[in-house]
Amino acid sequence: MKAVIQNEFGDPHVLTFTDVERPEIEKNEVLIEIAYTSVNYADIKKRAGKKGKGVFPFILGLDAAGTVVEASADSHFYKGDRVIAFPRSGSYAEYAVAKEQLVFKIPDQLSFEQAAALPTVSMLSYILLHEIGQVKATDTIVIHSAAGGVGSMLAQFARAAGVEKIIGTVGNLAKEDYVKNLGVNVVCTYDNFAEEVLKQTDHRGAQVIFDSVAGEVTSRSLDCLALYGTLVQFGNSSGKAGTFKTSDVHSSCRNIKGFSLGTTRKHAPERLAPVAQKVVKRFALNEVELPVAQVFDLKEAELAHQLMESRNYAEKVLLKV
């Protein structure tokens, strides 16, 4: 089968389109013929060697949409089922294997293209908003990187939940209209967001702040987090660790929560099926959507990574297999 592999860490040039052996399923796994796979920022970090160690060669890709072509005799999946999945060994390929607990059926009215955009960012966003942040309609929330995949979904899910005030940060105000169309009420940059949040809340601060950037953004988020508020930390796209002191949370009764979808896939996959069902239903009913910025052919993975690293885009980037 055709796949995109890499034999070393580095820039997008290390991605190689080539032939590899088709994977075989083991017990409680299914083989999926991939239609589309999404490009996530975690792929960029892994390719560059900034996210764990690699055993070369390996295939990137966290999620995919496609059709089941093989399953165990006692499986509840059958050949021809339309699914989204988190494959065990990458999704930049024509075929991939996934554990049954990480495969979820999708309805016929949901296109493979839209389905491929949703697994990582939508399921992560739903969990962050409803389970980790436990956001209420009366809350003021801050979504960092609001134009990104997770930010885009957080904004829509928050709007659907009736959240009264949603503040989003962007690296470039050229993305302001896009973010506001998603449901964000106030858009600001990373340079002035703390001051703007305090202004918008009569200096009380936001009840929940979603931080995937880390670095200085984390400490400045604490500058505008309300008493009893929650900082939800789920990434470090800045490449720098965020820091805080125990005094930042003790007397103010504030708390900091962390979450990783990757850790959950590995250690608590049973948590994902109920979320997948809710998210897929909302997409199928067009209650939310994740606009696709650009679709590249699988052999153009290098170009897709270059676009992602340029930050000169909003919406989702996909690979068509």
TrEMBL record:
Name of the protein this chain belongs to: Zinc-binding alcohol dehydrogenase family protein
Residue ranges of domain Enoyl reductase (ER) in the record: 10-319
Entries under SUPFAM superfamilies matching the protein: GroES-like (SSF50129), NAD(P)-binding Rossmann-fold domains (SSF51735)
Keyword terms: NADP, Oxidoreductase
